[in-house]
Amino acid sequence: GLQESMLETVIPRGEGDRVMVVLGPHAGKVGRILEREPERSRVLVQLQREAGRVLQLDYDAVCHYVGRHEDD
């Protein structure tokens, strides 16, 4: 019974925190926050398995990731 309007996007506060991409062509991939742009509601994310790939994503396209790390 939840509606999208009832939800609020929560982005980790620290740079280096892990997020998962949940929207778009990179959905399901995990990365680390390089930079936050709160005034534009965007983050720069470096994908975990693609070291050279950096994405600029809206807050709604990512979520805090608390799962296992590939080094665990």
TrEMBL record:
Q: Show the SUPFAM superfamilies listed in the entry.
A: Translation proteins SH3-like domain
Record's CDD domains? Answer: KOW_GPKOW_B (cd13153)
Location in or out of the cell: Nucleus
Domain of life of the organism in this record?
A: Eukaryota
* Entry GO MF terms: structural constituent of ribosome
Q: What is the first-listed, main subcellular location in coarse terms?
A: nucleus
Start and end of every KOW domain? 12-39
Keywords assigned by UniProt, alphabetized: mRNA processing, mRNA splicing, Nucleus
The biological process GO terms on file are:
mRNA splicing, via spliceosome; translation
Please give the GO cellular component terms listed in this UniProt entry: ribosome; spliceosomal complex
Q: In UniProt terms, what function does this protein have?
A: RNA-binding protein involved in pre-mRNA splicing.
The entry sums up its family as follows: Belongs to the MOS2 family.
Q: What is this protein called?
A: G-patch domain and KOW motifs-containing protein
Which species is this UniProt entry from? Answer: Ceuthmochares aereus
Phylogenetic placement of the source organism: Eukaryota, Metazoa, Chordata, Craniata, Vertebrata
UniProt gene name: Gpkow
